[in-house]
Every structure is written in structure tokens, then in C-alpha cells.
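re: ur question from yesterday

yeah so i grabbed the chain u mentioned. its 66 aa long if i counted rite. heres the sequnce exactly as i have it in my notes:
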Amino acid sequence: MRSGPVWYPTDMDDDTGPLKKLLDTLRDQVDEEALGIEHRLNTMPRRSLHWSTAHHVYTAAVAMTG
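ran it thru and got these C-alpha cells back, copy pasting raw so excuse formatting
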């Protein structure tokens, strides 16, 4: 039976932990910003909805079905 090469950790592996933490932090910040934008869009009055908000129209429709 033939065995493959043995894997040894390298110096680069020590750098991936902090990098992953940084990327997770950035992802959380982007998610928070996106939620703020979503809230602003959904609570903005619209002429096409007779000056109601998308949030109000949606919650009224859900309340009628549930």
C-alpha cells in the first residue's frame, strides 16, 4: 500500500486564524450596514403605495392571511 505525503503545518497556517477572525468581523459589519439599508428602504413612504411604506403594506397583508 502506497502512502501519500505527510502534511506538516507551515508558518502560513498561523496567519489564517487572525485572518478568519478579521473576515468574520468585517462580514458582521457589512451585515449590520445591509440591515440598516433594508430598514430605511422598507420604512420609506412611497407614492406607488399611496404614501404608505412597504413594511406597513407587508405586515397588513400578513395579518390578513394569518
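noticed a couple things. The two ends are 64 Å apart (CA to CA). also The chain has a mean pLDDT of 83.
anyway ttyl
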